[in-house]
């Protein structure tokens, strides 16, 4: 019979699996530095040689990387889903922009629904903390800070959804998310859209999540992104009307 004696698992293998899970679940982020060797060995309850063996294996597999004189870091296993040139292209062409918003509405609506159901108390505290930073930044009227916090708020919801595929996919799209937020806000400010409306929409999302109401959370996210979509459509119509008016004016000037 092809049975073999069961042998205890090497400690280094247990360490490897634990670090793998922390990376998979997004708890250890790309670029994050691991604790110093002595501290990490104590936390894991293993010897330093066992830890070194585990770290070496994870380095060989491309999950960890060493920086001379700086320590061991989680490797940039995500990168960006899109090249910077394509990200800029998306932000400057209506077809891609509206597809992007529709994609966000679907994915983030689902993420909000899941977060209201599966988020830990700590996850909800993180989301609330980002929203409080948005409130604090609001009176300062710094669009760069507001856009960054806007993106961080939506990203925190995705992380609280506890779906590892969604988490890593959306993290890899973070540059696109950030660029989208900058672009959307700049357009809406041109349309005199009040910043209070955007803040209140995020408040509604946060309130639904803190109340652990999945349906309300999804509806609030979808309503927010539909509002952004309508604002961009209005902007497009306004631009076309301005162009038509300009052409008519130039035509009339040419006839005189």
UniProtKB/TrEMBL annotation:
The keyword DNA damage belongs to this UniProt entry's keyword annotation: no
Record's protein name: Pyruvate dehydrogenase complex repressor
Signal peptide: none
PROSITE patterns associated with the record: HTH_GNTR
Entry-linked InterPro entries: GntR_C, TF_FadR/GntR_C, Tscrpt_reg_HTH_GntR, WH-like_DNA-bd_sf, WH_DNA-bd_sf
Keyword check for Protein biosynthesis: no
Gene Ontology molecular function, alphabetical: DNA binding; DNA-binding transcription factor activity
Pfam family, one: GntR
Function text: Transcriptional repressor for the pyruvate dehydrogenase complex genes aceEF and lpd.
Recorded superkingdom: Bacteria
Taxonomic classification: Bacteria, Pseudomonadati, Pseudomonadota, Alphaproteobacteria, Rhodobacterales
Annotated segments matching region Disordered: 234-256
UniProt keyword list: DNA-binding, Repressor, Transcription, Transcription regulation
């Amino acid at each position: 019979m092809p049975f073999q004696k069961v042998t205890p698992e090497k400690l280094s293998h247990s360490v490897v699996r634990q670090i793998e899970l922390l990376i998979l679940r997004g708890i250890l982020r790309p670029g994050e530095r691991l604790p110093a060797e002595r501290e990490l060995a104590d936390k894991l309850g293993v010897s330093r040689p066992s830890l070194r063996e585990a770290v070496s294996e994870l380095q060989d597999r491309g999950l960890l990387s060493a920086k001379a004189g700086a320590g061991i870091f989680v490797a940039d296993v995500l990168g960006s889903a899109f090249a910077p040139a394509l990200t800029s292209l998306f932000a400057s062409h209506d077809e891609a922009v509206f597809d992007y918003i529709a994609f966000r509405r679907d994915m983030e609506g689902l993420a909000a629904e899941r977060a209201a159901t599966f988020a830990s108390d700590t996850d909800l505290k993180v989301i609330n903390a980002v929203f409080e930073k948005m409130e604090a930044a609001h009176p300062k009227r710094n669009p760069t800070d507001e856009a960054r916090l806007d993106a961080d708020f939506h990203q925190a919801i995705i992380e609280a959804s506890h779906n590892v595929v969604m988490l890593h996919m959306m993290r890899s799209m973070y540059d696109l998310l950030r660029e989208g937020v900058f672009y959307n806000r700049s357009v809406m400010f041109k349309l005199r859209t009040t910043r209070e409306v955007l803040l209140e929409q995020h408040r509604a999302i946060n309130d639904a999540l803190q109340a652990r109401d999945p349906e309300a959370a999804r509806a609030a996210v979808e309503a927010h992104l539909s509002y952004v979509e309508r604002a961009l459509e209005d902007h497009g119509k306004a631009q076309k009307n301005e162009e038509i008016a300009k052409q008519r004016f130039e035509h009339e000037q040419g006839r005189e």
